[in-house]
Amino acid sequence: MFDYTHRCDRCSQIARVVFARFLCYRLDDGTEITWTDQPVWCLDCRCVSAAEALPEAAWLAEMLQRVEERGIDNDDREGAKFLGRDASTIHSEEVQQWRVKLRWRIARRSPPRCLKCGSLTFQPLSLAQDGSFEHPGCAGRFHTVLCAHACQGKRQVLTSEGLPWSEDDRLSEDWLCKFAHLPFESERNH
């Protein structure tokens, strides 16, 4: 995952947020799947945050069909060789993973949620080619001033509907968007 720090070119606001973490969804039958998040502007948090990135069921069905039709491939063979396992077992497990993801997505009723506050009201960030994005309500643009690779020390477990599985699965402060306002020079003198 990546830890980004952004600065607005108009109001100098700083936003820090972690993206590209792998979320663990625990389904009602205990099966677990992983999926990733997306960068958003949360309208309730009023800051850059991460939210669930829910794939379309049709896309998952297409991916499942591709994996089933292609059969065992070189990736399966190489993975099996590396793990000391049978290639057909590796392929069968991959097919099963896509089936479970499709089943999860078809059963999912709620829209994606902000991972900081659980809100359903956010705007996915539209990144420009340089990685900058609009600062809603300001008319400025956030630009990346620092990017670091981070290791996910704790996995966040969510229900199939995107809610924390338990109190321990709420985002910890070090996973959250850090937000601060840096005053203009004229504000510092007052």
Please sum up the structure shown.
This protein is an alpha+beta fold and 190 residues long.
Structure keywords:
190 residues, alpha+beta, 5-stranded antiparallel beta sheet, 5-stranded mixed beta sheet, 4 helices, 26% helix, disordered C terminus
Using only C-alpha atoms, the radius of gyration works out to: 20 Å
The helix-and-strand class reads alpha+beta
Tally of individual domains: 2
Distance between the termini: 40 Å
Question: Percent of residues in beta strands?
Answer: 25-35%
Helix content: 25-40%
The string of secondary-structure elements, in order, is EEEEEHHHEEEEEH
- Note the overall shape: globular
Unreliable stretches, pLDDT < 50, 5 or more residues?
172-190
**Mean pLDDT, nearest integer?**
83
| Major sheet characteristics | 5 strands, antiparallel
Instruction: Give the number of helices.
Output: 4
Q: Order of strands across the biggest sheet?
A: 7-8-1-2-10
Number of strands: 10
Structure description:
The chain has 190 residues and is an alpha+beta fold. The protein has two domains: 2-54 and 113-188, no CATH class; 55-107, no CATH class. It contains four helices and ten strands, in the order βββββαααβββββα. The chain has a five-stranded antiparallel sheet, with no helix packed on it. Strands 3, 4, 5, 6 and 9 form a five-stranded mixed sheet that branches. Strand 4 and strand 5 (47-52) form a beta hairpin. The longest helix has 21 residues, at 87-107. The radius of gyration is 20 Å and the shape is globular. The termini are far apart. The model is unreliable at 172-190 (pLDDT under 50).
